[in-house]
Amino acid sequence: MWRQLRPIALVAVLGFASPAGAVEGTRAFFPALEAERGRLVINGATDIEAMEPLIRDFQETARDVAIDYTDYVTNDLYRDADIACRLKQPFGDLLLSSSVDQLVKLANDGCALAHVSPETRDVPAWANWRDEVFGFTFEPSVMVYHKDFVPPEDVPHTHGELTDLLRFKPDYYRGRIGTYDLRQSGIGYLLAFLDAQQASTTYGRLLESLSRAEAVLRCCNNAVLSELDSGNVYIGYNILGSYAYAAARRNGKLRIVLPRDYTLILSRGALVPTGAKRPELAGRFLDYLLSERGQDVAREKAFFFSRSGALPAEVDGPEKLVESGIGRPIRIGPALLAAQDRLQRSRFIDDWTKLIVDTPVRLRPN
Amino acid sequence: MKRRETSLFWRLVLRVALVLCGGATLLSAAAWYYARAAADDAYDRLLLGAAIQITANMTVDAGNLGVTLPSSAFELLGLAERDRIFYRVVGPDGRTLTGYDDLDIGINVTAARAGPVFLTTEYRNVPVRVAVVSRALSDPSFSGWAYVVMAQTTEARRGLAGELTTRAMILVGIMSLLALAGTVLAIRYSLLPVDALAATLRARDPQDLTPVEADMPRELKPFVGSINHFMGRLDERVTLLQRFIADAAHQIRTPLTALSAQVDMLEDDDLDVNRKRHLGRVRDRVSQLARLTNQLLSHAMVIHRSDSVRFKPVDLGDIARKAFRSTVPITVDPDVVVSFEDSAEPVFVRGDAVSLREAIANIIDNALQHGVEQRLAVRVRREDDRALVEVADDGPGIPPAEWAAVTTRFVSSKMGEGSMGLGFAIAAEVALAHRGTVRFLEKGGRDFTVILDVPLYREGT
C-alpha cells in the first residue's frame, strides 16, 4: 500500500494538482522586496496558504531576504530530512512540521542546531526542547461538521458522543466520516497515537466505530476539509483547528467543535537542521515566528488560535481551554520518542490498517 | 633591588593561606568527585527505571517477541530535560528488535544477566551513560534472554554535578576566608606582646640597663630573659669600665698636680731662649693634661649621675649662670667682652642640675679655650617647648663638616694644635640623657654659636 502511494506523493511534490485538490506538496518562491542578499530555504509540512502571511510579514522586517518554501507531507519531510542528516547533506535551512514527534526524533538523532535568542527564552517549556525544537503555534485538534447534513442533536461534543453517534446512525454516516490516513500522514499518526494514550478504551471503541462507518481516509487536513466542503463527508475527525477554521471561513456551513472530554493541542514545530546553509537566516525567521508580531499575524491570518487569546468566534468549545484541563498541549520532548519507535509505529499502524482498511465490509459487524 | 622585610606576621599568614589553599583545592576536588557520583546515582535510577519499564512491556505473542515502548519511560528520562535518549531492544537471538541498531558500542549484554550494568561511553560522538537490563523470557515457545540497552546523554548529570560542585566550592571558599580572617586576627593578637615589648624597650632611657620587667607570654620569656641577661652583663662591663676610667683619672690627678707644681717651681730666668720655649711647652702640655683629666672625671661623673640620679625640675637659667661664673676666670683677658643674658622668666627643665652645669661649663670652657677673640656671650632662652642655652663667640668656629665628629670623644677641630678634649662629648652625653641635643649655628651674620637644646619641663610630664 505504501509503495503504491509513493508516486502520488512525488507528483504532488512536483507541483501537479492532486486529485484531492489543494493538498500539501508544492513549492513557492517569495522574492526579496529589495535587492536579494540572502535566500532562506524552508521545507515545511504546513500549507503555503497558512505560511504566506507570515512569510510576507517577515519580509517586511527583512526586505533583502528571499524565501524559497516547499510544502511536504509530514512523512516525506521527515524521511528526506533524516536521509540528508545521515549523509550530511543540506536539506533546507529551516524545517516546519506539524508532526513534532518527527522533529523531536531528528533532534534526538543530532540533526538539529540549537538556537537561543530573547524570543526563544519566552517560549513555554512544553514547546521547547533543547533549544532545538520550538513549537510556534497553538492548534487544537478538532471535529468539523457540515451544518446542512448534521442535525443539531447529532453534533458530537466528546469522543464518546462521536462513537455513539456512529453506532446509533451507522447507515446515515457510513462513508461520511473523514479522517487522516495514518499510513501517509505523520500528524495523523501522532494524533491517533496520543488519542490511544489519552483514553485507550474510548479510542478502541472509536476506532471500531470508524471502521464500521467505513471512514473516508485522506492524506491531509485539506483533503478531508475539501471533502467536507463539497458535502461528501459530513464529519471530519482530528482535524487541526487552524485548517478547519480557515475552511470554515471560506464555507459558512462548516462548523468546528472542540471535544469537551479532552482536546489535544498541537504546537507546530520548527527546527534548524545541522546541514543548514544559512542558519542565521533560519534563526531570524524563527525569532520572527516566536515574536509578538509573528504570533499576532499567526493568530489573525494563519493559525487563528493562540496560547493566550480566546477561541475564535463561532468555535464550539470550552471557555478556558488549557486552564480547565481539557486542552492537553502536546509536550515537545523525549516522551514523543515513544511515538517514533519503529516497532511501535509499525504495529500501531498495522493494527489500525487491519481494523480500518483491510477488514472486508462483509466481515464488519453491523 | 629592595629586600623584603621579613615579618613574623606575614610568614604565618602566608603559610596558613598556603595550607588553606591546599585544603580548599583538595576539598573542591572531593566535592566534584562526590557530586559526580551523586548525579550519576540520581540519574542512573531514572535510566534504570526507564529500562525496566521497557523490559516489563515485553510480550511474547504467537512465538514473536514484541515490545511496547511506554511513553512514561521516556517521560521519566525526559526529567533530564535537555538530554537525548538512545535505546535498543535486543531479542534472544541477538537481533535488534527496535531502537538504534548501531547502539552496540562493544557492550557485552550477557553481563547484564546477573543484574543491571551501567557504563559511561561515547555514542555518536557524544558522551552517554548506558544502562543494560536483561529479562529472562520463559514462554514455552520462546525462551532466552532479552535485553534493553538504554543510553542517555550526560548534560543533566554534568549540570547537576557542576551545580553541586559550585555550591560546595562556594562553601569551602567562605570557610577558607573565615579561617584566614580568624588566623590573621589570632596572629595579630598573639604578636601584640612582641610589639609591646618593643615599645617598652624603645621607651627605655638609653642609660637604663636594669632588667626589663614586663608581663610577657611564656613564649617570649626566653627572649626577654636573654635580653635581661645581656643587659646585665653589659651593665657590669660599663660600670667596670667607668670605674676604671674614673680610678685611672683620679690616680693620674695626684701625680699630675705634683708635676704641675714642680714645673711651676722651675725658674726660667736663667734659661736660654731655646730652653725657655721648651719649658713653656711643657707647662702648656701639663695644663692640657690636667684639663683632660678633669674632663675625664667630669665625664665619668656625668655618666654615673645619669645612671643613678633621679631627674627633677630645675631652672636652667640658674644652672647656666653658675656654670658661667665658675668657668669664666676672673683673670680673663680684659680685652674680651663676656656677657650673660638670662631669660626673663625661669626656664625649667627636668634633669640633673650637676650634669647640666657640667655640660654648660664645658661648652663655655671650650669657647674660651678655642674660640674667643673679643666676644663671648651666653644666653638662656625658651623657644616653644624647648629650653636653649646658647654660647656664642667671635672665634673662627667649627666648620659644619666636623659638627658630627666633635661631639664624639677626643676629636678636635684643630688637629695637632691641642685636642678639644671631651668638652662637646660631655655636653652631648648630658643633652642625650635629657632627651636633647647639642647643635651648632654657623658663623655668618652672627657669631659662631653652640646650643644646648633640651625639652622644657611641663607640669605632669
From TrEMBL, chain A:
Pfam families according to UniProt: SBP_bac_11 (PF13531)
Lineage, highest ranks first: Bacteria, Pseudomonadati, Pseudomonadota, Alphaproteobacteria, Hyphomicrobiales
Signal sequence, start to end: 1-22
Protein name from the UniProt record: ABC transporter substrate-binding protein
Keywords: Plasmid, Signal
UniProt-listed PANTHER family: PHOSPHOGLYCERATE TRANSPORT REGULATORY PROTEIN PGTC, THIAMINE-BINDING PERIPLASMIC PROTEIN-RELATED
Keyword Signal set for record: yes
SUPFAM superfamilies: Periplasmic binding protein-like II
